[in-house]
């Protein structure tokens, strides 16, 4: 059962650890990529039940944190033990809590700032996005490329012949 519980963190977190560009707008250098691979390997070793026999010929990334792995494994086991001991929450209680959070923070989200940040990202890849929208048949039917051009013109306060 332990391996099953760890499969989601391993599939999800290992992917995020090794590929931060999936969620952040970053490009990792080769050095950073190597470091992230070591961290991901350590995380993976911490979440597996099997004990790894290490020797002189073991990869350096496994040797680097070999002394820490038993402690990390205990932390992972404690984490799952704590989850097993928590009291279940009903769907109604969960929905109520989420609705309350939504009400409490509804005024804290600045939609214009969020839209502007989204537009900055779109503007960075504008040409590629327009090309992709013009090549996609569904996007063509919905005139998404044209609509994006209109939005860009409005945001940039540009007058166009659209």
TrEMBL record:
It comes from the Eukaryota. GO terms for molecular function: semaphorin receptor activity. GO terms for cellular component: plasma membrane; semaphorin receptor complex. InterPro entries: Plexin, Plexin_cytoplasmic_RasGAP_dom, Rho_GTPase_activation_prot. Pfam families: Plexin_cytopl. Residues 3-129 form the Plexin cytoplasmic RasGAP domain. GO terms for biological process: axon extension; negative regulation of cell adhesion; positive regulation of axonogenesis; regulation of cell migration; regulation of cell shape. PANTHER family: PLEXIN (PTHR22625), PLEXIN-B1 ISOFORM X1 (PTHR22625:SF59). This is Plexin cytoplasmic RasGAP domain-containing protein. It comes from Danionella cerebrum.
């Amino acid at each position: 059962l332990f391996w099953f519980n760890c499969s989601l963190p391993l599939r999800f977190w290992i992917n995020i650890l090794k590929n931060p560009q999936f969620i952040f707008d970053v490009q990792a250098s080769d050095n950073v990529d190597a470091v992230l691979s070591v961290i991901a390997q350590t995380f993976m070793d911490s979440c597996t039940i099997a004990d790894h026999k290490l020797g002189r010929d073991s990869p350096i990334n496994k040797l680097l944190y070999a002394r820490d792995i038993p402690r990390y494994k205990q932390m992972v086991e404690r984490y799952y033990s704590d989850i097993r001991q928590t009291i279940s929450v009903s769907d109604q209680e969960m929905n109520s809590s989420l609705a309350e959070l939504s009400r409490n923070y509804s005024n804290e989200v600045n939609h214009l700032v969020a839209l502007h940040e989204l537009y900055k990202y779109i503007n960075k890849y504008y040409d590629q996005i327009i090309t992709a929208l013009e090549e996609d048949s569904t996007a063509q039917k919905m005139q998404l490329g044209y609509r994006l051009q209109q939005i860009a013109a409005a945001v940039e306060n540009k007058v166009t012949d659209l």
